[in-house]
Amino acid sequence: MCNALVGVGRGALSGALARHTARHRFGGKRFQHRALPEDSLHAAKMLTLAAILAAAPLAIAIYAYVGYPLILWLVAKVRPRPTSKPEGAGWPSVTITVPVYNAASSISATLDRLLDGCIE
Question: Quick one: CA dihedral 15, 20, 24, 28, positive or negative?
Answer without folding.
Answer: positive
